[in-house]
Amino acid sequence: MTAFTLHDETSAPEASKPLLAKSKAEFGMIPNLHAVLAEAPSVLEAYQVLHELFQQSDLDKEEITVIWQTINIENVCIYCVPAHTAVAKRMGVEPAVIEALRNQTPLPTARLGALRTFTLAVVRARGQFDPAALEAFLAAGYSKRNALEVILGFSHKVMSNYTNHLAKTPLDAPFKKFDWAPGDQAA
Prior knowledge:
Layout: H1 17-27, H2 32-37, H3 41-55, H4 61-74, H5 80-91, H6 95-103, H7 110-125, H8 131-139, H9 144-167
Helix pairs in contact: 3-9, 4-5, 4-6, 4-7, 4-9, 7-8, 7-9
């Protein structure tokens, strides 16, 4: 099996070094995902830019977390589910939202449930979903802008989920307490 390098500021390609410094400043460490992405500076930069843009969307912290974790769980990303559990806690997301996402149980509000349902429609139908999915999303109080922002969040997560599957990215020590496996989800 081909192993991917976990780069740091000394081993990374020159163009990735300032990007890794940015990751370290934001997270207090270089997350292993970023260390892997550093192999391709343009990919690490794109990931960071998408992350920033998604957080600047019209969605609140719970909604952002619903989108991230719904996609992480649907794509069975055993790195991203724990990592985004830590991120959600740092963002101050309600514990009930975090646990409902991790366990695939009902979310605390119908509106967040509609967001999860629409996000799953986007992921599962690969953009060819039934127009009724959009209508139900809009009926729950979301906007067309929000629908496009779900696609932005999906784009961000495709990069990380697929990279983690490809590289078998090891879980960082701070995320291990939030470890998750596919069997952890409800039926």
